[in-house]
Write a structure and sequence with these properties.
- By secondary structure, this protein is an alpha+beta fold.
- The protein has 13 helices and 24 strands.
- Strands 3, 7, 8, 9, 10, 11, 14, 20, 21, 22, 23 and 24 form a twelve-stranded mixed sheet that branches. It has a five-stranded mixed sheet with strand order 16-15-17-18-19, with helices on both faces.
- Helix 2 packs across helix 5 and helix 3 crosses helix 4.
- The relative contact order is 0.11.
- Bound molecules: 5'-O-(N-(L-cysteinyl)-sulfamoyl)adenosine.
- 5'-O-(N-(L-cysteinyl)-sulfamoyl)adenosine binds next to strand 8, strand 11 and strand 14.
- Belongs to the class-II aminoacyl-tRNA synthetase family. ProS type 3 subfamily.
Length: about 475
């Protein structure tokens, strides 16, 4: 599927770069004949596997994974529409089974509250059943009418991790929101993707939530990508779906809930933040192949070199590393191109001179070269990979710091959002937010910002001059 396909456009023209890298690096095939629906190539799927195994590792510490049905009967789904007015404009309906019309139309889950909560109403009986903390990783369907884009805005979200928790009190649910924010912060740190956590304004919160906290990544073009959300649902859904429990005194109480979601946008951010003009750049933990060995074959010692490469591969595999030897009949340069495009963090070259000198030449994906000792190769490779991962995080953090600009006037903010995000003081009222959005044609992303890159100084609202707090203003996907 992958021969040398020429070079990527520069990352400066981010949109073209993004579309090209998805097929050149064999992440996604966008040729599937349904709008907003795309196909994972095996390499892309292997990246997804590595990324979601980290997400599962973090969630499995104190959640349980489960799986609810895709199909939601209209009567349950419409409870959400009547009370919560969320997804009726985005939901797909199944109306037939074969040639016979269904007596009850079935919704394809756009998210699973209306599939899960009728079951939670059966499962939650007593305070002893709480807290209940489940998650699932499923495909969900949303009839998006805005511009669809692979991994970013899909009609079939293929990798929708949704957690749904139930608690005895509003305060317990609030603490769960804080726990979820910690999990998301750790998850994105492991992806070496800096995120900014903030509280969405009321008019942008999740339908049916008391409030929504969001994680935003800054993409290379300065636009933000909402890469995760955590919702405090209060008792809004437990009222609608009658999720109640007997408390310690024997009284019936309505439960309090949270839900929090991440989709394959986390992979869009991973690719976009780290990728360069040669292709994917993957943190070692997310790389399907962590080390590629390229034997430099000289005719007269070809067998000896291949043997030595195989021994090296075995030693590294036995040390738990994901290693591949590229012994295809291609010149080394074509091999370097191929594996750089796929984002392999470390390449080892092994030629006759290296064998004689008992060394292995290495080059990490950012081009840093070194000569490693053959004796100590496993240790030295692990250190090289660790150093590489740290340099990815540092590089990404430097870039984010450059893209965040404090602005004291609407004009300054307007300038900042051309290729970054603006931090302005906002009083928090909707009129000033509307004024900012009207003047700058950008939205207030959120306030109550949690970010090591942004302070929490007070200042005059850039519109009404009343006391304001830092708020994020940006164009977003
Ligand atoms: N059309 C889409 N394509 C890709 N990702 C999406 C799409 N819509 C939403 N997402 C991602 O999914 C996350 C969770 O979606 S959400 O609507 O905010 N929240 C929920 O659905 C809640 N039930 C929490 S699971 C969002 O933060 C966003 O990162």
């Amino acid at each position: 599927m992958s021969e040398e396909k020429g070079t990527l456009p520069s990352k400066e023209t981010f949109s073209e770069w993004y579309n090209e890298i998805l097929w050149r690096a064999e992440v996604m095939d966008v040729r599937y004949p349904v709008k907003g629906v795309y196909v994972w190539y095996p390499h892309g799927f292997a990246v997804r596997k590595a990324v979601y195994s980290v997400l599962r590792e973090l969630l499995d510490r104190d959640h349980e994974e489960t799986l609810f049905p895709l199909l939601i009967p209209e009567n349950e789904f419409m409870k959400e529409a009547e009370h919560i007015k969320g997804f009726e404009e985005e939901v797909y309906w199944v109306t037939h089974g074969g040639t016979s019309e269904l007596d009850v139309p079935l919704a394809l889950r756009p998210t699973s509250e209306t599939a899960i909560y009728p079951m939670y109403a059966l499962w939650v009986r007593s305070h002893a059943d709480l807290p209940l903390k489940l998650y699932q990783i499923v495909n969900t369907f949303r009839y998006e009418t805005k511009h669809t884009r692979p991994l970013i805005r899909l009609r079939e979200i293929t990798s929708f991790k949704e957690a749904h928790t139930v608690h005895a009190t509003w305060e317990d649910a609030k603490n769960q929101v804080e726990d979820a924010i910690k999990i998301y912060t750790e998850f994105y740190r492991r992806l070496c993707v800096p995120v900014i956590i903030s509280k969405r304004p009321d008019w942008d919160k999740f339908p049916g939530a008391d409030y929504t906290m969001a994680a935003d990544a800054i993409m290379p073009d300065g636009r933000t990508l909402q890469v995760g959300t955590v919702h405090h649902l209060g008792d809004n859904f437990s009222k609608t779906f009658d999720i109640s429990f007997e408390d310690e005194n024997g009284d019936q109480k309505l439960a309090f809930q949270t839900c929090y979601g991440i989709s394959e946008r986390c992979i869009a951010a991973l690719i976009s933040v780290h990728g360069d003009d040669k292709g994917l750049v993957l943190p070692p933990e997310m790389a399907p192949v962590q080390v590629v060995i390229v034997p430099i074959i000289m005719k007269k010692r070809a067998d000896e070199i291949l043997e030595s490469a195989k021994a090296l591969e075995k030693e590294l595999k036995d040390a738990g590393l994901r290693v591949k030897i590229d012994d295809r009949p291609l010149r080394p340069g074509a091999k370097y191109y191929h594996w750089e495009m796929k984002g392999v963090p470390l390449r080892l070259e092994l030629g006759p001179r290296d064998i004689d000198n008992n060394v292995v030449m290495s080059a990490n994906r950012l081009g840093d070269k070194a000569s490693l000792s053959r004796e100590n190769i496993t240790e030295e490779v692990k250190i090289s990979l660790e150093t590489f991962g740290e340099s990815l995080l540092n590089r990404a953090e430097e870039t984010v710091k450059e893209k965040i600009r404090h602005a004291d006037t609407p004009d300054e903010a307007g300038k900042a959002v051309e290729d970054g995000v603006a931090v302005v003081h906002w009083c928090g009222c909707e009129e000033c937010a509307n004024e900012i959005e009207k003047r700058l044609n950008v939205s207030i992303l959120g306030n109550e910002i949690r970010s090591e890159y942004i302070g929490d100084s007070e200042g005059e609202c850039i519109i009404c001059k009343k006391a304001g707090k830092p708020a994020l203003v940006a164009r977003s996907y």
